[in-house]
Structures are given as structure tokens and as C-alpha cells.
Write a structure and sequence with these properties.
Length: 569
């Protein structure tokens, strides 16, 4: 049970939240006793849960005491047990999250529109969360249902399939998601009494969310600059009496190595300039999106360095953050944090385990159905740009398009970031429906576009951002077996793709080609703006159906090598 004080329940806050949508909600808590000495406030943080009710099958390597440790991490029931243990003895504690709690989820959650994951996180004691890009995968109407509850249908799947859904027991914040009138989708901020300290919380998602979601899912909303929105809301919270402000933001950094219990090795990425611009009132930034774990300190626009945290992905870590509030000086005197592995040493919490078991059992007959057999190629090395799993999906989509529209379709491309799992589950020689659903959970349709060779090269150039060596902007495009290409990231912008071959023959800049993309890419997702201008020849069904049909006859897992990185490092 949570030990934080005076945290308002979600149900009693709904009316106030609705009124706040016009300006970025600041809910003012009841007065608390004034502290006579320094007070410790605990903030427990997670991010990028992605509906992982069960313990993910793969292991995670992380740095611990200078050594690399590899463990199986996560699972909702283990997460709840870990959170309970961390709260023990804490008089002032709050639990927060930085987006992507739902979406791109395993079958047991996704089949039920992520309702069980939302329920599990509420049972685990989550209080406040920012939205992330994957919260928008099913559209804003469905996201409102996730917050508020109910069984109104907004997708092809039927809500409330097992039981009525009351909505999230935590509060979603969306301070930089605004409509044409400037109204935010959800409150932008909330003020909570945590022990004797008034803590303001701001919730944001990355500005690029619109490029990561099918356009129809965010129609009518825009995503404003993160630092500008955070600073505006921080000023509002300070005016309302906040002692300190915590920013929950679904944007992150990159570190190497990628998973760390403490420390910040080689930090880079878009979160850095955002933090550097933040108002001094913001003492802590809880981040996400990159699926990495780190504890960093970054200088900002005045004031002491801010603590920046991230807790990996899938509930594998919890960041245990301690703020020491000095009531005499009216400032945060100290702040520290550590990422704690959710490794099962504390067991599980029975009520959450029962919830997970109920939904997994209901999904099992569908998830366990074998859809096809797979044979290793002998070269299925995952350490390559496109991965065998992405190549398999691209081959399946080309096959589906040729079946639907004829053999004249030349090639298919899949964004590697849209292939959510590798082929570890194929070790037994079979793939089940649940396993391929986890690989392709978005339900995208397949569109065949007509492009000249020059236009195809332009699209491939859109993969790369920054100057030498360039980096992928969002994702790399993995091609079907009919096409290969190479690139040199040290070359000038617009001239990084060095060769494109179709069936072993260089493409002709003036010749027209018919190429398969999912509707997300065809609509300009992941920054492929030029594809929006291309003519659609036809459609070829849904990505998951294409993969299932392709596997039905048995396949050999493709190896890497369709992309060649010629960059001299």
C-alpha cells in the first residue's frame, strides 16, 4: 500500500481535471503541516512498459559494480512487488511514469486493448504519467477511454472483452498536445501534496510524436516544443505554490553501454538540449522513449544541475529517486537516484499476478496457435542493420502484395523500428500467432506506391540525419530479398546512399518501380515525407495477415546483408 500522504484519488479529481483542459491543469492540494527540518521525498519512476504483463523472455545485460550482469527482468506482478518493497518506510512517496505504458504490446495485453496493463499499473500504485507516442497508436478517442473508462468501441477490437473497464487509476498528463484552439488533450500538469512538500508534475511527449503515429490517430492535435511547454507549466505550478517541479517527458537520451543502474556513460540525444533550456524550478527530469537506463546530471538555464533519469523498458527497472527538501531555504538541497532491477528476487504480488493470469489464460488459445514453421539459415545474426526479423517481414509483405496485385511488384520496405521483436521465439522451429503479433502489433495496411528510381533514392536518403557520420533519424528501412542498397554516413546530406540494386541490377533513376510500404510510412511516418507525394497503386491487406500467410508454407529465416554500411569509422 502506498504511504504518500494526501494524494487525491482519480475519481474525485475528474471534475477538476475537465476544467483544467483549457490551460494545463494545476490541482491544488489541501494544506499540510509545515516541516521543521529537511524532508526526504521518494519518487519511483518507470517508462516504456509497453503492456508487458508477463516477464519478457529475453535477458537484459546491465552494468552493476563495474561488472556486466545479465538477468531476466520485468513482469507486472514482479514490478508491483518491487514497488511495494521500495516504498517501505517512506512517509512521502509518489510513483510516476514517462509514457509508452501501452501500445506495441505483447498479445496478452494488446488483444484486450491494453486494459489489463492499465489495471495492473494502477494496482501497482502508479499515480501520474506523461503520454508517449505509443499512447496514440489507437487514436485520441481510444486514449480518452483508457483514461476515463467505459466500453465504447473506437477500434476493430471489442473493449471490455472480459470485464467492465473503469479506466486508469493514474492521471495522464499531456502538456504539449494541443488542439487548434490551444486546449490540451489531457491536463498538462498537476500539483500534489507529497508529505509536507508540494510537488508539481508536468507531463509531455516528444515533439516528433506526430511522425511516429499514423496521421489519422492524432488528427486535430499538434505537439509543441517540449522545453517551451515545460517552462510555461513550471511557472504556473510555481505560482500555485509548488515547492519543486518534476518533469515527466517521453523523450530520451542515448548512453553506451545502454543499461546502467547508475551513471551516464557517453550521454547524447535530443533530451540533452531540452534539459539545458529548462526553468530552474524543475529539479528532476524523468525521461523515456529510447529504452535505455541512466542516471545523469545536466546543467540547465540557471540553478544547480538537474537529475535526469530513465528506467529502460518493459518494467525491467524502477528508478528510486530521493529528493531532500530544505523547508528553511525552500529549495531541494540534494537529489540522488539509482535504477533498481525488477529481477524477481522479491517474488510477485498475488493480486496483480491473478489479474495477469486471468488475461493470459483468456488470450492463450489464440496466442498459442502455430502459424508456421521456420528453419534457421545458418547466418541469422541479429547484429546487423536490418535484422533477420525485419527481412522476414519485408519478404512477407512483398509476397502479399504480389498475391493481391500481381508479380509486377518490385520490392517491399519495412521500418526496422516497427518490427518489435527478434526471432528468439523461433528457436523451437515454430512461430505462434502470439509471437508474430508481438513482432507486428500495429495493424498497419500495406500500400503499393509507384516511384521512379530517383524518388526511391530520395526516400532512402531521408533515413539519415546530422552530419558525418550521420545517424538514422528514426529508423532504417529493411528491404525484401529482391533489393539491396549501401550507404556511407560520412558523405554529404542527400548523397549518402551509394548504390541501390534490384535483382542485382542497379536501379534506373528514370524508370518507375512499384514498392510496398505500410500505411504509416506511406503517410510520412518516421520522417519519410517524400512518400506522401507518391501515387498509390493499390493495397494488399494488413501486415499481420501478410506475415501469417507467408509463414503458413514454412520459411527459412533470412540472413542479414541487404543493407551495407560503408561508413569508415
Amino acid at each position: 500500500m502506498r504511504t504518500h500522504t494526501a494524494m487525491p484519488a482519480r475519481r474525485s479529481a475528474i471534475a477538476a481535471a475537465i476544467a483544467c483542459l483549457l490551460a494545463g491543469c494545476v490541482t491544488v492540494p489541501a494544506p499540510a503541516p509545515v516541516a521543521q527540518g529537511p524532508v526526504e521525498v521518494q519518487v519511483l519512476a518507470l517508462n516504456d512498459f509497453h503492456g508487458n504483463l508477463e516477464v519478457p523472455p529475453s535477458t537484459t545485460a546491465f552494468s552493476q559494480d563495474g561488472q556486466v550482469v545479465r538477468q531476466t527482468l520485468g513482469g507486472a506482478a514482479r514490478l508491483a512487488a518491487r514497488l511495494d518493497a521500495l516504498r517501505q518506510g517512506q512517509a512521502a512517496t509518489v510513483t510516476v511514469a514517462a509514457g509508452d505504458l501501452i501500445g506495441a504490446s505483447p498479445f496478452a495485453s494488446a488483444n484486450f486493448l491494453d486494459e489489463p496493463s492499465v489495471m495492473a499499473l494502477g494496482m501497482a500504485g502508479l499515480d501520474v504519467a506523461s503520454v508517449g507516442n505509443h499512447e496514440f497508436d489507437r487514436g485520441t478517442a481510444e486514449l480518452r477511454r483508457i483514461q476515463d473508462g467505459g466500453c465504447e468501441q473506437h477500434t476493430l477490437r471489442t473493449p471490455c472483452a472480459l470485464e467492465p473497464f473503469a479506466g486508469a487509476d493514474f492521471t495522464y498528463l499531456a502538456g504539449n498536445v494541443v488542439d487548434t484552439g490551444g486546449r490540451s488533450l489531457f491536463p498538462g500538469a498537476t500539483l500534489r501534496q507529497v508529505g509536507p512538500v508540494k510537488v508539481g508534475f508536468i507531463g509531455l511527449t516528444l515533439t516528433g510524436t506526430a511522425t511516429l503515429v499514423s496521421p489519422a490517430m492524432t488528427r486535430g492535435y499538434r505537439f509543441t516544443d517540449e522545453a517551451d511547454a515545460a517552462n510555461r507549466l513550471a511557472r504556473d505550478l510555481t505560482a500555485q505554490g509548488a515547492d519543486t517541479v518534476v518533469l515527466l517527458i517521453h523523450e530520451g537520451g542515448r548512453v553506451d553501454p545502454t543499461q546502467n543502474l547508475s551513471g551516464c556513460p557517453n550521454l547524447s540525444g535530443p533530451i540533452v538540449p531540452i534539459v539545458e533550456r529548462l526553468d530552474p524550478a524543475i529539479s528532476l527530469v524523468v525521461s523515456g522513449h529510447t529504452h535505455m537506463s541512466y542516471i545523469c546530471r545536466i546543467d540547465g538555464a540557471g540553478g544547480p544541475p538537474r537529475l535526469l533519469s530513465s528506467a529502460g523498458r518493459y518494467g525491467g527497472f524502477v528508478t528510486d529517486i530521493r529528493l531532500t527538501w530544505d523547508p528553511a531555504a525552500r529549495r531541494v538541497a540534494d537529489i540522488s537516484a539509482v535504477n533498481v532491477p525488477v529481477n524477481g528476487t522479491l517474488g510477485t504480488r498475488a493480486d496483480v499476478a491473478a489479474l495477469v493470469d486471468r488475461y493470459v489464460t483468456a488470450a492463450e488459445p489464440l496466442a498459442a496457435r502455430v502459424v508456421g514453421t521456420v528453419t534457421p539459415s545458418g547466418a541469422a545474426d541479429e547484429n546487423c542493420a536490418e535484422t533477420p526479423a525485419a527481412n522476414l517481414v519485408a519478404d512477407a509483405q512483398l509476397s502479399a502484395a504480389r498475391s493481391a496485385l500481381g508479380e509486377g511488384i518490385d520490392a517491399a520496405f519495412i521500418n526496422t523500428s516497427g518490427v518489435r521483436t527478434n526471432l528468439d521465439s523461433a528457436a523451437d522451429g515454430q512461430l505462434t500467432y502470439g509471437e508474430i503479433f508481438a513482432m507486428q502489433p500495429f495493424g498497419n495496411t500495406l500500400q503499393v506506391l509507384e516511384l521512379t528510381g530517383l524518388e526511391l533514392r530520395q526516400a532512402l536518403e531521408e533515413q539519415f540525419c546530422n552530419e558525418g557520420p550521420a545517424t538514422p533519424c528514426s529508423t532504417l528501412l529493411a528491404p525484401s530479398s529482391t533489393l539491396t542498397y549501401s550507404y556511407d554516413r560520412n558523405r554529404p546530406q542527400g548523397d549518402r546512399v551509394t548504390a541501390i540494386r534490384l535483382d542485382g541490377v542497379p536501379i534506373n533513376p528514370e524508370e518507375r518501380y512499384q514498392v510496398v510500404f505500410n500505411n504509416f510510412l506511406a503517410n510520412g511516418g518516421d520522417g519519410f515525407a517524400s512518400l506522401v507525394q507518391r501515387r498509390t497503386v493499390g493495397e494488399a491487406g494488413v501486415d499481420l495477415d501478410a506475415l501469417e500467410a507467408y509463414l503458413a508454407g514454412g520459411v527459412t529465416i533470412p540472413s542479414c546483408g541487404r543493407l551495407r554500411d560503408l561508413t569508415a569509422l
